[in-house]
Every structure is written in structure tokens, then in C-alpha cells.
Amino acid sequence: MKYKHLFFDMDGTVSLTRNKITPEMKLTLQQYIDDGIDIIIVSGSHNEQMTYQMDGVPVLKMGQNGNHAEHETEGEIWCEILTPEQKSKITEHTKAVWAECSHVVPNEDDLFEDRGSQISFSLYGHNANVVEKKAFDGDFMKRKALLEKVPYECDETEVKIGGSTTFDYFKKGYNKGYNIDKIITHYGWNKEDCLFYGDALFPGGNDETVVGVIETVAVEDEEDCLEKLKDLRNT
Fold it and tell me: How far apart are alpha carbons 42 and 78 in whole angstroms?
């Protein structure tokens, strides 16, 4: 096969939001690993959550849009932490965004997560029912409209649309594309051997910055991703 290193977004690409991968996805990814292909997950989520979702599949985890990288056997590779001042600026924006919202959520205490390298603000709830979350903003349009209405202007941090209901805030420029380039350099891989799958490659999505770094494949959801992975094995 042409590719040696397969990169993936997590939620909406490899699995349903915050859910374990399906047995079929697990089998397919493990087959690639058994063939000597590296599997790297680059997600807005934190690494502990990704470990749960991958259900024992040994992958290189790059959580918080790649700002916390951990290898299964080597341990932590890097971890970029937001400063208190940066977190304060981000919090101001999440409050301004929330002030524009009038919908009811299952739990208002479940909207804001400080993950260290990233702050994730969910419009519906990080741990809410996955079907409800997808129905709430599965096409990303609510979040796109909110960012147009309440733009985030900051010299040190930026925001991207991620997952099914979240805004991901992290150090400016320290996005998925930057961190994928960084891990490729770290291991001395060739970019021509790398391929990325993601459901948010659109402008403003947290996968967008991978475009131009390595080859990308847009997927609609985890089922579409699985079918495209199967097709890749036959090439």
C-alpha cells in the first residue's frame, strides 16, 4: 500500500462522539497495524478519553488538537499548556457566545472543559446523549453562525469548530496541521506516506488546517470513514 502512516480525527470520523469504536472499525484498524501501518489519532478530545474510545487499539494519541502527544510505549512526547491569561481571554469569549444562545441543555455544568492544552466549550453538553448532540448541530451550521456573530479576536489563541457541538480553543497556530507536521518531523517520516481522514475539513473546522500539510480524505461520519478505509485496503 502507498501509505505508511494513517492519521484520523476521532469524533464523527473514527467513532460516534465519546463512544467506543465499533467492533468492525476496531478490526479494520487493527488489520492496518498488523500490516505495519501507523495509526495516529488527532483529536480535540483529551488523551484519556481517546484511550477509552479506541478500546485497546494501540495508536499514537495526539489529543487537544495535537497539543498533547503520547506514544503507547514511548510515553509523552510533548504537552503545550495554556497560560492563565490565555484561559481568561477564552472564558470571556465562551460567555459572550453563550449569551447569544437561548436553547435548553441537559446540564449547564457540562459545557466548559479546561483540558490544559485546550479549552473546549460545548453548546449542548460534552456528556449529553450522542444522538441529541448530532441532531443539535450535526451540520455545524449553528456554530458557524455564532462565530460570525461573535468573532474571536486574540493574538495568542484561536478557536476552531470541533466534535459534534464544541468550540476548541488553543494556542494560535498550534492546530492539527501544525502538530501533524511536527510529529512527522519528530519521527522523520515522509509526508507522501501520510494520509488524514476527517469530518471537519471545511473552512473553520478543526481539521481544515491539515489541508496542504498532508493528503486528506473528507468523511461524512464514522460509517463513511470505515467504508473508505476498506476501499483503501483494496488499492
Answer: 14
Over the stretch 192-230, which tens digit does the pLDDT of each residue have? Answer: 999 999 999 999 889 999 999 999 999 999 999 999 999
CA-to-CA distance for 8 and 225, rounded, in angstroms? 9
C-alpha cell read off for 104: 435548553
For the chain, the domains span 5-80+174-233, 84-171
Under CATH, to which class is 84-171 assigned? alpha beta
Q: 77-104: per-residue pLDDT in tens?
A: 999 999 999 999 999 999 999 999 999 9
pTM, entire model: 0.89
- Residue 217's DSSP bridge partners are 197
Phi, psi (rounded to 5 degrees) for 136: -70, -45
- The closest of 37, 44, 38, 14 to 26, measured between CA atoms, is 14
Mean pLDDT, the chain, whole residue set: 96
Fold of 5-80+174-233: Rossmann fold (3.40.50)
Q: What is each CA distance from 213 to 14, 42, 69, 180, in whole angstroms?
A: 20, 14, 18, 8
Measured over all CA atoms, what is the biggest interatomic distance in the chain, rounded to whole angstroms?
50
| Residue 80 DSSP code | -
On whether the CB atoms of residues 8 and 196 are closer than 8 A, the answer is yes
23/55 Cα distance (integer angstroms): 9
